[in-house]
Specification:
about 280 residues; Helicase, Ruva Protein, domain 3; about 40% helix
């Protein structure tokens, strides 16, 4: 199978044919460099037999690079025009019938995926990247690993470790599902239009066993949000609203083996989970 990737001229021609102008509202910055999309696919270690989900395929540059490996793709696209055109582009570029499935929908509202893909590969819109990632990890437990291109600041936050200034609620929530690490840099010049922010690749592997139940996850995330909403305060103060008072928060924290004088950025996801397990159910 030979799949022909899109170049800059191809992408501009497709956009003109569809009367598509990249919009900030949808976070559309199309990748126009074949080497970059191949780099993303290589970072994700996509294998021929795998089923991949791509979020926001746009005009199809990354989609074709995934399909080039012999993997099959479920592509979720919110822009109706782009979703309608993508299968035609794939066929014109040498993709066999049946290898691509397009879901015309908002990724934040998708609750089922054809083929139950195990790998996530995407160039995510900067404005919704964290909510989309957390939604997919929560909703689709069969997703085992992935690599996404996001704004550099977001990637660094997702991969951040406790104790750093950029460690925050997204870091802890992402870690609930498994480890994350930075997987490569991307030049601004490979995008059309050129964004005013830098991009990085960040990858994840889901832990073999779930960390806890759905109820435990919700409770843990509630505590995480409270801790980082007032990140400069000691946890006994930051969590007083969750547990009723600073004194009660201190009791819960001590029961979980966490110092009441610690701050949110000092705790691992396991620490937050322990707090949720010993916390009284409201």
């Amino acid at each position: 199978m030979t799949v022909s990737l899109l170049g800059a001229a191809d992408i501009r021609r497709l956009a003109a044919d569809l009367d598509v102008t990249p919009t900030k509202k949808l976070g559309q910055n199309f990748v126009v460099d074949a080497n970059t999309v191949r780099k993303i696919v290589q970072a994700a270690r996509v294998q021929p037999s795998e089923r991949v989900v791509e979020i926001g395929p746009g005009l199809g540059s990354l989609t074709l690079a995934i399909l080039e490996t012999g993997a099959s793709v479920t592509a979720v696209e919110i822009d109706h025009r782009l979703a309608a055109r993508l299968p035609q582009t794939a066929l014109e570029r040498g993709v066999p019938e049946g290898a691509l499935t397009v879901v015309d929908a908002d990724a934040l509202r998708v609750t089922s995926l054809p083929g139950e893909p195990t790998v996530l590969v995407a160039n995510l819109p900067y404005n919704v990247s964290v909510p989309v990632l957390l939604h997919f990890l929560e909703t689709f437990p069969y997703l085992q690993r992935g690599v996404v291109m996001v704004q550099a600041e977001v990637a660094e936050r997702l991969a951040a470790q406790p104790g750093s200034k950029i460690y925050g609620a997204p870091s802890v929530k992402a870690a609930w599902y498994g480890p994350w690490k930075l997987s490569g840099t991307v030049s601004r010049q490979v995008f059309w239009p050129v964004p005013n922010v830098d991009s990085l690749l960040v990858g994840f592997h889901r832990d073999p066993e779930p960390r806890g139940s759905e109820q435990e996850r919700r409770r843990t995330f509630e505590i995480v949000d409270a801790a980082f909403n007032q990140r400069r305060k000691m946890l006994r103060q930051a969590l007083s609203g969750v547990f009723g008072s600073s004194a009660q928060a201190s009791t819960v924290l001590e029961s979980a083996g966490v110092a009441p004088t610690a701050r949110g950025e000092d705790l691992t996801v396991d620490d937050y989970h322990r707090i949720a397990l010993v916390a009284p159910v409201s």
